[in-house]
Each structure stands twice: as structure tokens, then as C-alpha cells.
Amino acid sequence: MPMVTVSISPVQAAGIRDAVDHGGYASSSEVVREALRLWDAARKLAEYRNDVLNDDDRASGGRCVADMFADHEAERRRSA
Questions:
Q1: Positions of E strands within the chain
Q2: What SUPFAM superfamilies does UniProt report for this protein, alphabetically (predicted)?
Q3: Can you give the residue ranges of every domain in the chain?
């Protein structure tokens, strides 16, 4: 497995040591690996949300739901 050296704050280092000392993780490497998995998942979720929101914006002409609903209601009243 490749080795990487990173700098973290003393508070972060203490948090990692605390997590290992209290049995949440077997090693500091496990803490960092889980943190990276969570970071990657959050990054992918943000990409997905941006893609979905951009698709919705294109479909709605960039208008918000409230504006579209107001237009719908106005049209409904005109038709009644």
C-alpha cells in the first residue's frame, strides 16, 4: 500500500489518538482511511447534486419551484 505523509493540526492528531484509544478504530490509519472514504462519498454526492440541479435548471429555464408554481396557479385561475 502506498505511503503518504500529511500534516494535520494537533487537535486533529489528538482526535485520531482518542478514537483509537477508545476502541473505535484499531489504528490511526483506519481513522484516516474512513475519513477519506467519507470525503470521497461527499465529493461524489456533491457532483451528483450539481448534475441533478443543473439538469433541473435547464428543464425549468433556471426558474425556482416557487416561480413555476405561481405561474401554474395563475394559469389555472385564468382557465377557470
A1: none
A2: Ribbon-helix-helix (SSF47598)
A3: 10-79
Cα–Cα distance, 51 to 57 (Å, whole number): 10
Q: Does the global pTM surpass 0.90?
A: no
Q: With contact defined as beta carbons under 8 Å apart, do 31 and 20 qualify?
A: yes
Place of cell 425549468: 60
CB count in 10 Å sphere of residue 37: 10
Low-confidence winner among 1-10, 38-47, 57-66 (lowest mean pLDDT): 57-66
70: left (phi over 0), alpha (psi -120 to 50) or beta: alpha
The grid coordinates listed for 73 are: 396557479
The string of DSSP letters for 22-63 reads: TTS-SSHHHHHHHHHHHHHHHHHHHHHHHHHHHHHHHHHTT-
Do 48 and 60 meet the contact criterion of CB atoms below 8 Å apart? Answer: no
